[in-house]
Amino acid sequence: MLSHQSQYQLAQSLASDADATNLAFLKTNVTLGQRKLEALLGIYYTEDSRTLTTVTDAISGTSYQSYKLPENFKKLSSFYVTDGDTRYSADLIQDEGLWQQINSNSTTLSSNYVQFCFIRRDRIELYPLPSTACTATIIYDSFSKPLVNDDYTTGTITTLANAAVAVTASGSTFTTGMVGRYFKIDTDGEWYKIAAYGSATTLTLDSKYQGISIAAGTETYTIGQMPITPQETHELPAYYAVWRWALMKKDVQMAREFERMWKEGVNDAQMTWSNRSTSSIITSKPYLRKRGLVNPNYYPEDLS
């Protein structure tokens, strides 16, 4: 796995350019390359979910119809409300006129049986209006958090047992912002996601440490911010950055070579990683489509 710092250092090494201004250019393009890679691989590495409480979390003045979308929301995959043991899924309406038609009933309907939803800028609107507080779940394609943090290596690890998740350090200053980043003992090399912050010298890992136990030790370590894409793709944003750098330098031959490496790498990544089963079949996401009103009295067609 390559952390954000390792990615831009790789780009810098490939470009053989130590200039500070050009390093900033490479960093920017590593970040752009990572975003493009995520988009090309589809939603499966940017899918996220949030919950809200209907009625309780409604935007004031909307009669319980409108709710704030997550700050990193990009595109809706599904929305459902859980009432007791029953889950009600909403169909996404993508036409303003149709949405107004649905909401034009002379009698305002109120029910936890959510049927339709509509995205309006930074909010999601529901129909019918929720009647009581229930848990609603939004599953959506998200914008990933920008990679901006350098590796953190201050201090040493004094305690970390095999098959344990508790990390204790000396001389470190851990922060809550490190939750979600990755941790490794340098001599072990395996990365573990950080699940929780304890104090300036303690962290909790998301999965059990599989290396040799450390007790009263002084092991060096690294905490890095990682791309969300598979580790086999982590060098691709560096290729993208060097391609753009070479174009800036008007080095056409080098630009073509790194453009080829970027595009071939992306193609291989799509073949391997762009679907849930990681097979060699590339599928496109059947995003929710526009639909009209459905008469519940009509029987499904083509059934015997």
In short:
By secondary structure, the protein is α+β, with helices and mostly antiparallel strands.
Task: Please explain how this structure is put together.
By secondary structure, this protein is α+β, with helices and mostly antiparallel strands. It has a domain at 47-142. The chain has five helices and 15 strands. It has a seven-stranded antiparallel sheet, with no helix packed on it. Strands 1-8-3-4 form a four-stranded antiparallel sheet, with no helix packed on it. A hairpin with a 5-residue loop joins strand 9 (156-160) and strand 10 (166-170). 27% of the residues are buried.
List the defining traits of the structure above.
single chain, alpha+beta, seven-stranded antiparallel sheet, 5 helices, about 25% helix, disordered C terminus
Cα-atom radius of gyration: 24 Å
Shape: flat
**Beta-strand segment tally:** 15
Number of helices: 5
Largest sheet: 7 strands, antiparallel
Secondary structure blueprint with pairings:
Blueprint: H1 4-15, H2 20-40, E1 47-53, E2 66-68, E3 73-83, E4 86-89, E5 91-93, H3 96-102, E6 116-120, E7 123-127, E8 135-142, E9 156-160, E10 166-170, E11 182-185, E12 192-199, E13 202-205, E14 214-219, E15 221-224, H4 236-248, H5 252-273
Parallel strand pairs: 5-6
Antiparallel strand pairs: 1-8, 2-7, 3-4, 3-8, 6-7, 9-10, 9-14, 10-13, 11-12, 11-15, 12-13
